[in-house]
TrEMBL record:
Similarity annotation: Belongs to the ABC transporter superfamily.
GO MF annotation, one: ATP hydrolysis activity
ABC transporter domain segment(s): 9-230
Swiss-Prot/TrEMBL GO biological process terms: L-amino acid transport
Highest taxon in the source lineage: Bacteria
Alphabetized Gene3D superfamilies for the sequence: P-loop containing nucleotide triphosphate hydrolases
UniProt-listed PANTHER family: HIGH-AFFINITY BRANCHED-CHAIN AMINO ACID TRANSPORT ATP-BINDING PROTEIN LIVF (PTHR43820:SF4)
Lineage: Bacteria, Bacillati, Actinomycetota, Actinomycetes, Frankiales
Protein name stated in the entry: ABC-type branched-chain amino acid transport system, ATPase component
InterPro entries reported in the protein's UniProt record: AAA+_ATPase, ABC_transporter-like_ATP-bd, BCAA_Transport_ATP-bd_LivF, P-loop_NTPase
């Protein structure tokens, strides 16, 4: 099981921020094969900054990131080639290209993306900019998962989407984890993410203020919301 396997991606005392000013401090996080770790926290807590730094899109200001046990400062495209998948906060589809072409320029085979999200088949010829928000998010997620990444980093997959489509996306992440991927999911809305997650951690003002099994977070959700999330996790 995942708890016995070494982490694929690890942050140790990670400090991160912008123009050398840290807004994330001393964060320890790890993602093992086959598990979903959800990072919760209110607006501005540092969730996206943490994820961008783990992906290599932002340089770390302190501490260390390890990939398969080795310290890394590699840029994003190197990490993607090495098995990292990213679904960024801004849906990453290219609006003027068709769904098919968006899948073609992704890191994995189009056929695999369609196996994972058969819903996209009937949309292949459509311009991605004409898709609904949920369809765009399925396209982004399908593209990242088609490469069967060792670790997937996903930022606010559920933003602005109906619960049914959020459940669909969460199911796809759970299935990827069950195939052996590690998943780090940043979410402001906790409950649906916790339902598929193995572990959770809560960031507040750039620091980890709670971490533990997702089951415990679910059981304790009212207290966690009240203490750390300002009610933001209610969805
Ligand atoms: N490009 C940027 N330049 C400077 N400061 C930034 C930048 N992006 C974010 N910040 C600041 O960094 C801090 C952490 O922001 P971050 O986006 O990581 O939080 P978050 O937890 O992801 O919040 P949200 O849920 O609103 O996306 C905030 O104070 C934010 O204002």
């Amino acid at each position: 099981m995942s708890a016995e396997e070494p982490p694929v991606l690890q942050a140790k005392n990670l400090c991160a921020g912008y123009r050398r000013v840290p807004c994330v401090r001393d964060v320890d996080l790890d993602v093992r094969p086959g598990e979903i770790v959800v990072v919760l926290g209110p607006n501005g807590a540092g969730k996206t900054t943490t994820l961008l730094t783990l992906s290599g899109a932002l340089p770390a200001l302190g501490g260390e990131i390890r990939w398969r046990g080795e310290p890394t400062t590699a840029a994003l495209h190197h990490r993607v080639r090495g098995g990292l998948g990213v679904v960024p906060e801004e849906r990453s589809v290219i609006s003027r290209l068709s769904v098919r072409d968006n899948l073609r320029i992704g890191p994995g085979p189009v056929e695999r993306a369609l196996e994972l999200f058969p819903e996209l088949e009937r949309l292949l010829g459509r311009r991605a900019g004409l898709l609904s928000g949920g369809e765009q998010q399925m396209l982004s997620t399908a593209r990242a998962l088609a490469a069967e990444p060792a670790v997937l980093l996903a930022d606010e997959l559920s933003l602005g989407l109906a619960p049914k489509i959020v459940a669909r996306l969460m199911r796809a992440l759970r299935e990827a984890a069950d195939r052996g991927a590690g998943v780090l999911l940043v979410e402001q809305h906790a409950r649906q993410a916790l339902a598929v997650a193995d572990r959770a951690c809560v960031l507040r003002r750039g620091r980890v203020v709670w971490s533990g099994p997702a089951e415990e977070a679910t059981r304790d959700i009212r207290r966690i919301e009240g203490a750390y999330l300002g009610g933001a996790a209610a969805a």
